[in-house]
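Researcher: Structure for this, please.
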Amino acid sequence: MRFEHQQLKLWYGTGDAPAPVDDAIAPRRGASVTVAAQPPGPSNAVIVRYRVDAGPVQSIRAVRLRTDYRRGVEYHRAVFPDFRSGDTVAYLPVLTCSGRSAPDAATALTLPTSFRLGAEAPSGGLAERRPSDPNVAAPALPPDRLPFAMDYLATLRIPLKDPEVIGQTAEGILVNWYWYPAEGLVAGPRLNAKVRRLGGDWMTIRRDGIGLMDVRATLETADGALLYASYNGYFDLGENGYQDFLDRRWPSHAPTRTTPRFHGSHPAYQWLNRAICVGIGEVRMTELVYVYDLYAVR
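Model: Predicted structure, token format:
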């Protein structure tokens, strides 16, 4: 399958971008699709929309695999969740970049490609092992894991000021990160807003180089709703991060993993009050910019 729109191209189900197409058989665990995107660029993102049988449409975000600079092609891969039941999975990858997308908006609402769920491929796992002692019973197989999906909501970009370092305490290094008077940006398929000026991260950096994040902020959506955001998480400066932070030997990128929660009264965002979210991001220390992708777990 190939699509082109707004100077963006994507394809899948080809020799360089393997994917289950034409009603192929795929295992209910570990099925994946590789998507080729052109032109390559840091702002490219690939979302795979899918439906199992007649169920609701869900989405997963593909991970960037590699870039073939000679051909000018970028590859992304999305791994579907384990399917508990269902006979057919219909799907469509969507490429976005700086407000552009491929395929076009009308096609993006369809799911033209499908595959059928078959038996699991042998994996050398628990089901295939046999105890060497015939008097020892084989371990019981675990039940099927419950299905889940990660819905991509938005990407947040927040410029930071130079940190306010309180100093070393018994708990660790106390350091406060603010962005005032700047504002942050929230842009995505489910949430578009700005991060208002007042807010921050009241962080404690442990001896092992992990910063314990404690973030509070207010988001103002494009339609004027106010959302209170708060979350904890890890900010990883590396094994020597404690002393390196004090000496300002900062890494160029420090990964973060967070669990944001949102609270608001606007009717259009009541669904966020019920959402359990995950933030996958990094602090770009040379630029002092915090960027993370926000997902809701279903």
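Researcher: Any notable elements?
Model: The CA atoms of residues 63 and 76 lie 5 Å apart. The helical segments are 105-108, 241-246, 270-273.
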